[in-house]
C-alpha cells in the first residue's frame, strides 16, 4: 500500500551515493487532511526507529510560539510576563522565522545532539513549509530543504504543504526537490469548483473525513511509480484502504443520451470470461505461428474449423474468444515484467 | 424556528456552544465571512452577548478591537438585545480598543505598522494574562471587527495581519481563549494570487459564511448561514468535521434562525 511504501522508504534512509529521501505531503482547503497524514507518517517513523536498536527521541524546533520575537520583546520590556516563551526542555525556541540559515543550524545542532551516542542519522519533519513561505522566499525555503537533504547525517525528511496557498512555481520547486510526493485530494468533486452552496454541502462534509491519497515515487533511474488509495479519518487517526471505483458515483456522471454507454450485467460477465491471448496465460492449446502464406486447403480447413468454432461459439454463447497467432519465433512471449526495470542509467 | 434570545439556537448548536454560553473556547479561532448583500455583523453582536451574559461565567472577558465603528454603535445595538456594554466596560469585562482613533504612521510604512501592532498585541496579552489569573476564570474572547479595515490601517500589509492573527491564536491555545474575526469575502474575490482569506480559512477551526440566497433578496429571509466546524482534536481523539446550513432573518432586537422551508 502507498502509505506503507512511504514509511519503508523513509525508514530505509538514503541509498548509497544518494541524498536522503524527501517526502512532500500536499493538500488543499477542499481536502484538508494533510495534517492527519503528517501525524501518521511521524508516528510510523517513530515506531520504526523504536523497533530497531535505538529508542526514538523527538526534538522540536519551535517556530510556532514566537516566530517573529514579539513575545520576547514584550517580555524584555516588562509589558508581559516571561512565561509565554518558556518551553519544555525538548524544544528549541526560534524567534526569527525569517532567518532560514539560523533555522538550518538549529535543526542540525539538535539532530547531532540526538544522535551523539548512537552515531547514526536523524530524520527531519517540517510542519509546515507553507508557514516557512509566509516569512521567507521560495528560493530560501528550497535552499533549506536541499541543504537538509544533502546533509550526510540526515536520514530522511518530510514536510507538509498546502498547495492552494502558493503559486504553481512554489509547488513545482518543492516537488522537484522531493523523491516522493503524496497528494491528498477530495474524494468527491464539488460542482463548478465553487464553495458552499446547497448542492455541494454533503460533498464538502464528506471531504472533511475522506480523501484520495496518491503517491508518486521518483526512482533513481528517473522512472516514476504511482500508487493510490483512499484515506479515512477516524477518532484515533487515519486509516488507508485500497481505492475502489465508486460505481454509484460513476453511474451518476454518465451523460443521459439515447445511446447505450454502459455495459449490461451479462456483457460484463461475458467480458470477464474472455481468456486473454498472452501466451503465458494460454488455454492449453498449441501455440500457432503464422508463416505468411496459407494454402487453399489450409484455408478451407481453417474455414471449416472457423465455422465449427463459430457454431461452437454460438452454442456456447457465454464464452468469448480472442484468437492470437504469433508472427514468428523471434517474438518473445508476453510478460508482466517491464524489461526496463533493471536499467541503471 | 429559533430566535437568538432562546437558550440555544441553530447557530449556537452549530458552533457547539452550551446552554450556559460556554463551550467554543479552548484555543479556537472562529472566522466570519460576509458580503455586501449579507452583513455578518449580527453574528458578532450575538456572540458578544453570549460571552458576557452567561451567569455561570462571571469572570469571562471580551477583548474587542474595533476598526469599523465607535463604541456607541455597539452599545446601542447590544442595549436593544438586553446587554449593557457600558456597565460591562466599567467592570472590565468588556475591554474595548478604539483602533479608529489610533494615529497609525504614514511615513514609517510597514516597520512603523509592525511596531504599532506589537504594542496592541502586548496590551491584549497583558489583559488576557491578568484575567486568567483571576479565580473562576474560564475563557477569554478576542474579537476583531474587521480584518479588511485592519489591513488598511496597517498600510495594506496582509502579511502583518496574518502575523497578528497567528500570535492571537497562539495566545488562545495557551490561555484557553476564543478568537473571533470578521472579514469580507468579496474584498478578495478578484485576486489572482492566493488570497489572505484562504490563509485565514486554514487557520480557523470554525468558518461561518453569511451569503445571500441563491434566489436573491427576499423580505422574509435575509440570507443563509453555512457553518463549517472542522472538529477538534484532543487527547481522547478527534471529532469529525460537520457542516450546517440554515436561513436567517434579522429583526430589530434579535435574529431568527430556521431551516429552509420550516417557517410557517
Automatic annotation (TrEMBL), chain A:
Compositional bias (Acidic residues): 328-345
Keyword annotations: Cytoplasm, Nucleus, tRNA processing
Keyword Nucleus included in the entry's annotation: yes
Main location: cytoplasm
Region (Disordered): 285-345
Family: Belongs to the ELP5 family.
Listed PANTHER family: ELONGATOR COMPLEX PROTEIN 5
Protein name: Elongator complex protein 5
Provenance organism: Coffea arabica (Arabian coffee)
UniProtKB/TrEMBL annotation, chain B:
Any GO CC annotation of this UniProt entry: elongator holoenzyme complex
Pathway: tRNA modification; 5-methoxycarbonylmethyl-2-thiouridine-tRNA biosynthesis
Entry-linked InterPro entries: ELP6 (IPR018627), P-loop_NTPase (IPR027417)
GO biological processes: tRNA wobble uridine modification
Signal peptide, first to last residue: none
Pfam families tied to this protein: ELP6
Family indicated by similarity: Belongs to the ELP6 family.
Protein name: Elongator complex protein 6 isoform X1
Organism: Coffea arabica
Amino acid at each position: 500500500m502507498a502509505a506503507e511504501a512511504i514509511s519503508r522508504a523513509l525508514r530505509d534512509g538514503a541509498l548509497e551515493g544518494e541524498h536522503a529521501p524527501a517526502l512532500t505531503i500536499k493538500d488543499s482547503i477542499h481536502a484538508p487532511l494533510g495534517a492527519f497524514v503528517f501525524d501518521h507518517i511521524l508516528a510510523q517513523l517513530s515506531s520504526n526507529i523504536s523497533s530497531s536498536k535505538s529508542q526514538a527521541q523527538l526534538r522540536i524546533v519551535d517556530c510556532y510560539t514566537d516566530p517573529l520575537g514579539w513575545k520576547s520583546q514584550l517580555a524584555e520590556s516588562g509589558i508581559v510576563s516571561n512565561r509565554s516563551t518558556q518551553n519544555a526542555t525538548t524544544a528549541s525556541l526560534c524567534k526569527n522565522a525569517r532567518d532560514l540559515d539560523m533555522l538550518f543550524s538549529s535543526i542540525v545542532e539538535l539532530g547531532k545532539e540526538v544522535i551523539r551516542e548512537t552515531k547514526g542519522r536523524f530524520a527531519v519533519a517540517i510542519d509546515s513549509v507553507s508557514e516557512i513561505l509566509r516569512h521567507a522566499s521560495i528560493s530560501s525555503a528550497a535552499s533549506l530543504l536541499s541543504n537538509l537533504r544533502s546533509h550526510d547525517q540526515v536520514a530522511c525528511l518530510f514536510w507538509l504543504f498546502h498547495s492552494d496557498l502558493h503559486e504553481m512555481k512554489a509547488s513545482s520547486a518543492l516537488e522537484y526537490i522531493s523523491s516522493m510526493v503524496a497528494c491528498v485530494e477530495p474524494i468527491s468533486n464539488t460542482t463548478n469548483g465553487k464553495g458552499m452552496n446547497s448542492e455541494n454541502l454533503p460533498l464538502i462534509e464528506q471531504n472533511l473525513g475522506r480523501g484520495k491519497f496518491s503517491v508518486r515515487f521518483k526512482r533513481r533511474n528517473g522512472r516514476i511509480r504511482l500508487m493510490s488509495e483512499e484515506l479515512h479519518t477516524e477518532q484515533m487517526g487515519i486509516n488507508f484502504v485500497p481505492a475502489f471505483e465508486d460505481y454509484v458515483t460513476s453511474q451518476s456522471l454518465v451523460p443521459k443520451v439515447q445511446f447505450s454507454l454502459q455495459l449490461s450485467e451479462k456483457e460484463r460477465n461475458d467480458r470477464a470470461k474472455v481468456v486473454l491471448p498472452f501466451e503465458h496465460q494460454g488455454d492449453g492449446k498449441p501455440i500457432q505461428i503464422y508463416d505468411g502464406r496459407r494454402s487453399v486447403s489450409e484455408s478451407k480447413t481453417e474455414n471449416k474449423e472457423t465455422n465449427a468454432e463459430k457454431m461452437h461459439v454460438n452454442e456456447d454463447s457465454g464464452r468469448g474468444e480472442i484468437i492470437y497467432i504469433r508472427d514468428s519465433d523471434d517474438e518473445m512471449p508476453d510478460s508482466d515484467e517491464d524489461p526496463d526495470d533493471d536499467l541503471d542509467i | 424556528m429559533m430566535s437568538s434570545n432562546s437558550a440555544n439556537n441553530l447557530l449556537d448548536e452549530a458552533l457547539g456552544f452550551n446552554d450556559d454560553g460556554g463551550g467554543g473556547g479552548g484555543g479556537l479561532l472562529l472566522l466570519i465571512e460576509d458580503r455586501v448583500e449579507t452583513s455578518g455583523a449580527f453574528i458578532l453582536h450575538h456572540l458578544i452577548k453570549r460571552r458576557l451574559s452567561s451567569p455561570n461565567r462571571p469572570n469571562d472577558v471580551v477583548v474587542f478591537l474595533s476598526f469599523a465603528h465607535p463604541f456607541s454603535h455597539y452599545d446601542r445595538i447590544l442595549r436593544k438585545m438586553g446587554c449593557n456594554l457600558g456597565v460591562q466596560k466599567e467592570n472590565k469585562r468588556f475591554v474595548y480598543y478604539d483602533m479608529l482613533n489610533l494615529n497609525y504612521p504614514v511615513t514609517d510604512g510597514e516597520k512603523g505598522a509592525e511596531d504599532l501592532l506589537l504594542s496592541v498585541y502586548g496590551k491584549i496579552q497583558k489583559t488576557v494574562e491578568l484575567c486568567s489569573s483571576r479565580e473562576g476564570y474560564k475563557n477569554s474572547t478576542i474579537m476583531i471587527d474587521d480584518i479588511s479595515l485592519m489591513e488598511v490601517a496597517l498600510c495594506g500589509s496582509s502579511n502583518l495581519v496574518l502575523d497578528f492573527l497567528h500570535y492571537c491564536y497562539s495566545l488562545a491555545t495557551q490561555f484557553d481563549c476564543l478568537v473571533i474575526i470578521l472579514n469580507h469575502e468579496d474584498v478578495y474575490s478578484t485576486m489572482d494570487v492566493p488570497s489572505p482569506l484562504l490563509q485565514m480559512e486554514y487557520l480557523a477551526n470554525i468558518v461561518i459564511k453569511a451569503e445571500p440566497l441563491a434566489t436573491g433578496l427576499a423580505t422574509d429571509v435575509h440570507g443563509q448561514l453555512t457553518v463549517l466546524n472542522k472538529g477538534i482534536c484532543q487527547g481522547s481523539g478527534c471529532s469529525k468535521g460537520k457542516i450546517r446550513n440554515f436561513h436567517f432573518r434579522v429583526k430589530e432586537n434579535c435574529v431568527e434562525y430556521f431551516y429552509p422551508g420550516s417557517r410557517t
